[in-house]
Design brief:
This protein is an alpha/beta fold. It has 17 helices and eight strands. The chain folds into two domains: about 220 residues, Rossmann fold; about 55 residues.
Length: about 375
């Protein structure tokens, strides 16, 4: 590391101290897709459980890697105990994977009458909304977080956020879905259903016929009727969506919550991490630190990259010791990768010198069991 970089070295992120702090009840791992959020969340939850915390980890990873790494045949919307965890310190570990559709169904069932819930669950528009509406997965992740936090089964909840194109989708989803369900068009359609169609006729005469006609052509009259019926059945829940969205946002801002931004030493991933750090700061949300995954560590001492390449070329020119030449080239490539990772990481720390950082070195293979998760947990500290 050059002297300037050493002078601006960020504070060390002590994850062990974080998970040992009993005041911390929620840890949210966020960042771009493919940077190791799932593995980081699982490793932190396992380490917390083996240090005496009663932990549950919630993943939204469709690849189901978490289930495999924890020795579970499957994960679903119900927290399941993870076997093989050292519970001698009084801790425990449960794991679950978000079922977006089932969580939405639970929201409906919990916040309306059985008869109205039956109407809503059977509605074709609701079925489409609860399965594929943009932002629903992120919103339901936070709904599930609220459900888990309301229970007394755990003293630590670790959340692996959805693999969105933008990490900011996670923070924006509750507001976006709440705005949609509270929006003018949805309320308008609800008014149409409640007025038995009279409102619809008035709208036609008031100049809305062009919009309605276009929607009918694109979506079909049957779908519009489904939307109206859905909104009419959902009427008593409108305030609830907005209220819970606000409660979720407030929960994320409390001191009991800690955000961990996860990134890889790649420009796009760190750019996303930088956006997320700025957003958390702007919204006064508690950022604990950055986990920089898959870093190629520098190797102080020994020969440099250029010397290694020159030595390999000499050996190759002499037609002897091909193995040594190959090892020299491998050494040179690792040094180049380490230098690149350091440069990319320095750009982030220069922009955010106050953010604590911990580096996790790149491993040879994938993490696929508890032993691997324990190793990651050790490296995180």
């Amino acid at each position: 590391m050059n002297p300037a970089a050493r002078a601006h070295r960020p504070p060390q992120f002590d994850t062990a101290r974080l998970i040992d702090d009993r005041r911390i009840r929620i840890v949210v791992c966020c960042g771009a897709g493919g940077v190791g959020k799932t593995t980081t969340a699982a490793a932190l939850a396992l380490r917390a459980a083996e240090r005496g915390r009663e932990a549950v980890v919630l993943t939204i990873d469709p690849a189901r890697r978490l289930a495999q790494s924890m020795g579970l045949s499957e994960l679903d919307n119900i927290p399941r105990a993870v076997a093989g965890v050292d519970t001698s310190g009084g801790g425990k570990l449960d794991a679950m994977m978000l079922d977006m559709k089932r969580t939405f169904d639970e929201v409906v069932e919990d916040h309306t009458t059985p008869e109205r819930a039956k109407q809503i669950l059977a509605n074709p528009f609701y079925q489409a909304l609860s399965s594929s509406f943009a932002g629903t997965q992120e919103y339901m992740a936070m709904e599930k977080l609220g459900q888990l936090r309301a229970r007394s089964d755990w003293d630590l909840i670790v959340v692996d956020t959805p693999p969105s194109r933008s990490a900011l989708d996670f923070l924006d989803a509750p507001e976006r879905l709440g705005s949609f369900l509270d929006g003018r068009l949805i309320r308008l359609l609800g008014g149409t259903a409640r007025a038995g169609g009279r409102t619809y006729l008035k709208l036609l005469h008031a100049g809305f016929s062009v919009v309605t006609s276009a929607l009918t052509k694109i979506l079909g009259g049957e779908l519009l009727r489904d939307v109206s019926t859905f909104v009419n059945a959902l009427d008593t829940m409108f305030g609830g969506f907005r209220e819970r969205a606000d409660q979720t946002y407030a929960l994320l801002k409390r001191p009991e919550t800690a955000f961990i931004v996860v990134a890889a030493p790649e420009p796009d991933a760190l750019r996303e991490a930088s956006y997320f750090v700025d957003r958390l700061s702007r919204d006064a949300m508690p950022l604990a630190g950055l986990v920089l995954n898959r870093v190629h560590p520098s190797q102080p001492g020994g020969i440099g990259a250029e010397q290694a390449v020159a030595g390999a070329e000499r050996l190759e020119a002499g037609g002897s010791d091909e193995l040594t030449a190959a090892l020299l080239r491998l050494h040179a490539e690792r040094l180049r990768l380490a230098a690149r990772d350091e440069r990319v990481g320095e750009r982030f720390t220069s922009a955010h010198p106050e953010v604590p950082v911990t580096h996790v070195p790149a491993l040879v293979g994938d993490v696929h069991d508890l032993t691997g998760l324990r190793r990651i947990g050790d490296l995180l500290s």
